Structures are given as C-alpha cells and as structure tokens.
Amino acid sequence: MKLAIAFLALLAGAVVFICLFTESVPPEALTRTRMTITEYRIRDYAAQNHRLPAQLSDLPPLSPDRDGNTDDAWGRPLVYMPQPDSSVILSSHGKDGSSNAITVRFTIPGVNLSGPTTVTTKESNDGGK
Fold it and tell me: How many domains does the chain have?
C-alpha cells in the first residue's frame, strides 16, 4: 500500500513538473491557430451579411470558452487586408514586429468589400515600432 501511494505521489509530481516547466503552445502555432479561427469567423460573417467586415472588431464575439482573440501570440493585432477580388490577407508581424512573418490568403467569392482596403484590429500605441 505504501508503495502504491509513493508511486502515485511520484507520478503526480512528474505531471506538475511537466505542466510548470514546458511551453504549452509555441507562439507561431498559437498565431496560426488564431488566424485560422479568424478566417472562419470572417467566412461566417460574410455568409450572414453578404459582405466582408470593415474591420476585425466587427466580427461577433465567440462564446467565453473559445479563443476569439485577433492578436498574434506577441500581443500585436493581426493585420486584416480585404482585397478587391474578394480575397482576404491576414498577417502577423511576427516576433520581431517588423515583417509579415506569418501570412494567409483566402478567397470568399460573391461578397462585396466593406470599408477601407487595409485596417487593423486596434490602434497601435507603440509609435509604429
């Protein structure tokens, strides 16, 4: 019996160690996941409204148990660029904040553009850095 308790304690300690000292999701993977979720939200918005949202903040909120964040893993807003051909470009400036390190492009046929051709989810407070 003591051996079983010791084994369970050791196993619990290993689980706690793994949870505390390993990175759960790499930033690039988190950013790509958020971009994919944002793409599906844009597609859903377009299907319901027959147009693209003017900005990402126009997307309806997700339920509280879902990640509807439109920032990349480094806390910068995703760049949302509707194109004249009804395609959309979503970009993240990546870890360094200066290049479009992660970019996805997708097309939503049969929708009209709404608003300016390039907008972001929120104003930048870092002076363009």
Answer: 1
What parts of the chain have a pLDDT lower than 50? 4, 7, 115-129
How many other CB atoms are there within 10 angstroms of residue 123's CB atom?
6
In-domain check, residue 52: yes
CB 118 within 8 A of CB 79: yes
Closest CA to 28 of 79, 93, 82, 73: 73
d(CA 44, CA 35): 14
Determine phi and psi for 115, rounding to 5 degrees: 85, -170
Asked whether the whole model's pTM tops 0.85, one would answer: no
Q: Which residue segment(s) compose the domain that 59 sits in? A: 26-120
- Do the domain assignments include residue 13? no
120: burial class by Cβ within 10 Å (0-12, 13-18, 19+)? middle
CA distance 75 to 116: 23
